[in-house]
Amino acid sequence: MARAVRFYETGGPDVLRFEEVSVGQPGDGQVRVRHLAVGLNFADTYFRQGYYPVPVPNGMGVEASGVIEAVGPNVNGFKVGDRVTYTGSPLGAYSTERVMPVGSLFKLPVDITHETAAAMTMRGLSAAYWLLKTNPWMKAGDTILIHAAAGGVGLIASQWAKLLGLRVIGTVSTEAKAELAKAHGCDEIIFYRRENVVERVRQLTDGEGVTTVYDTVGKDTYEGSLKSLKRRGVLVGCGTASGPFPPIDALQLAIQGSVYFTRPALADYIADPAERAELSGALFDHVAAGRIRININQRYELADAIQAHRDLEAGKTTGSSIFVIP
Question: Where would I find the Enoyl reductase (ER) domain in this sequence (predicted)?
Answer without folding.
Answer: 11-323
